[in-house]
Prior knowledge:
This protein is mainly α. It folds into 2 domains: 10-153, no CATH class; 154-186.
Amino acid sequence: MATRTRDNQRSRVYKAERRTFDWGQTVPDELLQATVDDVLDRHSVRSRFGSRRINVERGRGGGAAWGKSRITLGVQARNEWVICHEIAHCLNPVSCTSHGPEFVGVYLFLVKTIIGAEAAARLRAALRETGAKWNNKAVPKPSTGTRVPPRQYESLAVAKARWNHAVVSLRDRLDAALRETTRESE
Ligand SMILES: [Zn+2]
């Protein structure tokens, strides 16, 4: 993506990521949108960034953010780390460098919120090693009171349950078909 300033710590961020997590698919295709919705729907995310919608599509290669409301993920990028990375691009203000300190601040905030404090600590340590900088200038203070927009989407738990149910019933149907075939051939 085009940026206003030179994206001069991009390779440091990528290097730190390679030291922190492995690429590969851990989120099934059917749960990609529910996972993105769940990230945006977390109270701590909504209270800082407001009610947002980001569409996720299957893509090729790595992950990419297109503007502020669309991301694409190649097969190897369909995991929570890359999802946090691409959402951070969408939440990072356009005036900030693509992989600049503000972006990394948002990314670390999302990793901590979604994957956990230990994961965020590992990423921070790797960023320190590779010399990437970060700050919290693009992470707003949470809005106080009750003005946090309400949950809008099917929860990830519900989507997962639906997905598991579909897998189990498919397995049952396959087992039944196999038993049928075996009986016929006996
Ligand atoms: Zn990026």
